[in-house]
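User: Run a structure prediction on this.
Assistant: Running it now.
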Amino acid sequence: MKIVWGLTSATVRDVYEALRKHRQIAYTTVMTMMKILEKKKFLKKTQQERAFVYQPVRPKEQVIRSMVRDFVTRVFDGSAEPLLVHLVKDRHLSEKEVREITRMIQENK
């Protein structure tokens, strides 16, 4: 999704080539994932000449919100607290980020 958002539209080949710069991945894996994202209505495709061109259907923030909500529901039974505890304990959040989250929690009480 990040690659398609960055390019605004992309073929499977475009995404595959961008991913290969960072890691080995099979072309068919990229194709399968893009089909899944299309089926979930995160991407739409149109045919241009011999290739399908994919475009994001929803804004990045909306998709991230949906994916995080789904992840928290599946992994943490809908509670975000264990996720935050894990991130803080494993040092995935800086002190500055923890302060910002604390501030946001206080504002939303």
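The first strand starts at residue 43 and ends at 48.
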